[in-house]
Amino acid sequence: MTSIRTLSRPYAKAAYEVAKQEKKVDHWLQFLQFISKLTTVNKVKKMLSNETILPERIVSFFSKFCKKQDINKKQLNFLKLLIYRRRLILISQITVLFQETMDDDRNILKVELYVAYMIDKKQSSDIMKFLSKKWNKNIVLNCTVKPELLGGFIASARNRILDASVRTQCKQLKLALE
């Protein structure tokens, strides 16, 4: 079975290419985020999951919301394409992939940083510099405190993980001693 990420990738790539041509990447991201949020509303979810509702009716519904927003013709066509192909359920994953593509293009990597205790700006800056050199990207950190780490940190970004926590080092030492 094909994964949602795999199904979403061509749509995200196509949307990004159009957005980049138009030089409206941020505008497209806002559009995708808006549609993604709209599809999380329970009534909208029910409508999208109901196979008996014609795509034209769904297009009409979304068009009403889009008139109130700053949405251009290409964005509306993209939305129609997703609706007619019954792929609008992929919009949240398309949005994630679009954001990742945009970040890659801008050489940005968003990192979840788990620390044992709240760190100050200097420590945060030092970790950002370290990760920036290691992963050759401009780093954007989002810190979360996890006291069970005891000390150090775990940095997680997409398919990359760097575990420099005291808890993991203790586990490794225990294994080495056994």
Describe the structure.
The chain contains 8 helices and 4 strands; from the N terminus they run ααααααβαβββα. It is an alpha+beta fold and 178 residues long. A 4-stranded mixed β-sheet has the order 2-1-3-4. Helix 2 packs antiparallel against helix 6. The longest helix has 19 residues, at 4-22. The protein is elongated and about 65 Å long. The protein starts with a helix and ends with a helix.
- Percent range of helical residues: 55-70%
Characterize the main sheet: 4 strands, mixed
Unreliable sequence segments: none
Distance between the termini: 43 Å
Protein topology:
Layout: H1 4-22, H2 25-38, H3 42-49, H4 55-67, H5 73-84, H6 91-105, E1 108-115, H7 121-135, E2 138-145, E3 152-157, E4 160-165, H8 166-177
Parallel strand pairs: 1-2
Antiparallel strand pairs: 1-3, 3-4
Helix pairs in contact: 1-2, 1-6, 2-6, 4-5
